Amino acid sequence: MRLPTTSLLALLPLLSGVLAASDVVDLTADNFQNEVAGCGHCKNLAPQYEEAATTLKEKGIKLAKVDCTENQDLCGEYDVQGYPTLKVFRNGVPTDYSGPRKAEGIVSYMNKQQLPAVSDVTPGNHDDFTKTDKVVVIAYGDAKHPVPESFAKYANSARDQFVFGQVVGDNLPKLPGNPKLPAIVLYKSFDEGHNVLEHKNIKKITEEDLGDFVAANSVPLFAELGPDNFATYAESGKKLALLFADPADAEPREKIIEGLKDTARELRDKVNFVWIDGVKFGEYGKQLGVATDKLPAFAVQDLTEMLKYVQSGDATVDSIKKHVAGVISGDIKPTVKSEPVPESQDGPVYKLVANSWEDLFGDKEKDVFVEFYAPWCGHCQRLAPIWESLGEKYKPDNVVIAQMDATENDIPAEAPFKVQGFPTLKFKPAGSDEFLDYNGDRSLESLTEFVESNRKSAASNTSASDAAAEEDDDELPAATEEDDEVAHDEL
């Protein structure tokens, strides 16, 4: 069955404002077109989109594009907010496109859209169907051994990612390994070419079991990691074994990959092995703590727990095997990136680094209010003088106002939280192991009120600013009841 001509992939590039690193471009009638045309993501997508359109045209699938600078009402009707936005129309009903943005990925995604969730496959077209996409999952059964109902349910939920089919009847094609019916086989265009599902009782297999089987076998043993497939690995829940290599120096990379394939196969239910361009994505390596100036280099990353295990020394087949085994067994502890511990803490704000975490939070007699920031974060930059003033207000005192550069220091694994954005403000009361979130406005008054409402320690000394305030109070005449009422009304 082919999609009706109303089904199309629409490219809707609209840019209502162009955001640079440090300033916002003001759009006018004179510069609007030029600024919009400068959308980098749209330019990168355009040739891939054109190539996919040519391929899909032969299959009756149309790709179209809309210039939102000329058709603002139309784009508004479909709630276009991202740039570019891609939507799939099936029988006139739009859904968001969630596939890759390379030509091959667009073609694969749209081919799946024209198929039912589960295609009925015959012995005559079976071999061709197994090559429909990079990953094709087929269930086999007959009258006595029906295909489990969970197969169709899982296929419907995963139809955008994979191609599904079923062969039912007495005349079945020869199956790899000659499994008993019902049987489920995953065919793929890489590695060993197929995987047969092994299960105690396939008749009662669950959607979750099917998902685990497909997830474990639908990625190559040792693929190249890039923007197009990163989400696949991130969503797998498995640790990621990263070989950083120079793409121009293929021999050492391929030698390591070949030497690790058996290990990758043995551990595929726990670890995904990939190699990554250590030159192009060197900054990513540096964020992990990998020395990308000396390639190849290796690290294991746990994207679920936000931990990393960086291998020191040369990356060889033997050293990588030993490192991965140590990570899995727990013998190798997570790598913690830290700036040097400051020699002194004379300023109003305590400079927290990863290696001084226990020194600060291990002191149960003090309240701690800490800001996790990034130097490039505009909100953090605006908060900086206010945070400094807050530090001055509470120094010396039993309340410590601290800050950590979260781009140069890791949050230790034992911390009961992860930093997801900047700035993140956390308050740990004295004598407690709990970290309280601060979500109020970032004025000095509000921050002070929050501290006073949550602190558990008693003030040890009077700060210079409070002392000055007390001296000023001594010079004022005593307030009358009328004065108190006026002051209260003005608050």
From TrEMBL:
UniProt key word Disulfide bond: yes
Catalytic activity: Catalyzes the rearrangement of -S-S- bonds in proteins
Region (Disordered): 452-491
UniProt GO MF annotations: protein disulfide isomerase activity
Domain Thioredoxin: 1-115, 327-456
Pfam (any one): Thioredoxin
UniProt KW keywords: Disulfide bond, Endoplasmic reticulum, Isomerase, Redox-active center, Repeat, Signal
An individual GO BP term: response to endoplasmic reticulum stress
Purpose: Participates in the folding of proteins containing disulfide bonds, may be involved in glycosylation, prolyl hydroxylation and triglyceride transfer.
Protein name: Protein disulfide-isomerase
Gene source species: Trichosporon asahii var. asahii (strain CBS 8904) (Yeast)
